[in-house]
Amino acid sequence: MPTDPCLADLCLPLLLLLITPLLPPTGAYFGLTSKESLSLFTSPAPIISSTHSRPHLKHCDLLPLTRRQKRLCRKEPGLAEALREAVRLGVVECQFQLRNERWNCSLQERGTLLKRGFKETAFLYANSAASLTHSLAKACSGGRMERCTCDDSQGLESQRAWQWGVCGDNLRHSTRFLQNFLRQRKGGKDARAKMDVHNSNAGIKSVKSGLKTTCKCHGVSGSCAVRTCWKQLSPFHETGALLKAKYENAIKILGASNEAVGGHETPGQLFGGRHTRSTDFLYLEESPNFCRP
Fold this sequence. Notes:
Elements: H1 12-19, H2 39-42, H3 55-62, H4 67-75, H5 79-97, H6 110-113, H7 119-141, E1 151-152, H8 159-164, E2 167-168, H9 171-182, H10 191-209, E3 212-218, E4 226-232, H11 236-248, E5 251-252, E6 282-283
Parallel strand pairs: 5-6
Antiparallel strand pairs: 1-2, 3-4
Helix pairs in contact: 1-7, 1-9, 3-4, 5-7, 5-11, 7-10, 7-11
Subcellular location: Secreted, Extracellular space, Extracellular matrix
Main location: secreted
Protein name: Protein Wnt
């Protein structure tokens, strides 16, 4: 049985398919959409003494995570660094894509936005979910996480075929892990809660839409007698550009305020008679001017 971690990017489609339909009903409350300071995520990881038997435990304890998230982090040696990378990606891309907007992803105003249902709020949720998806997928395919590494698929004819890129994931365990990590509180039934879930999933689907097929030929003198193909993620900067386009075309749904409007409010009830798609950004209220005197 091969023991090597799966080659970079070969497990991405499996992990993405795993994540996409299963986001918890509270959206991606992590990183840019959490209430915690991002400084410990965006600052360089502290140097842990090489004599420390399990250095990832210290990294997990230093990160601003919930108790449940800390427990999960301590069980997965590669998770702390993947989380740091997710937040870094999200912040950098948010500030780049919104650099010319009235709200330019200033982190100081993030807390206020998270209490409202603006277009900017929709972008934050989608961006946070997308960066987390991208970072976890990269960490998994790169063999940096023990609990979602590639495994040898059933029915392989040889170890060589596995080394070329045929690999599989433990979908059941990984699904449970991601659901538990993202879930922080019970999901609400009001329009705002549904908006957060919808936009988080739209962000994940934006990452999935960027999967590209890469192929490699095997044969004498380039004859391509055997061809192995796999899916590879687009650079996150390309995903960020897609998120910005969705932000610019976000759709306002019924519900004039950020207050609960009852359990019958669902995405699809809009102003202007337009219908939403699962990849659209939705918002509840018009954005303020953001200009200060």
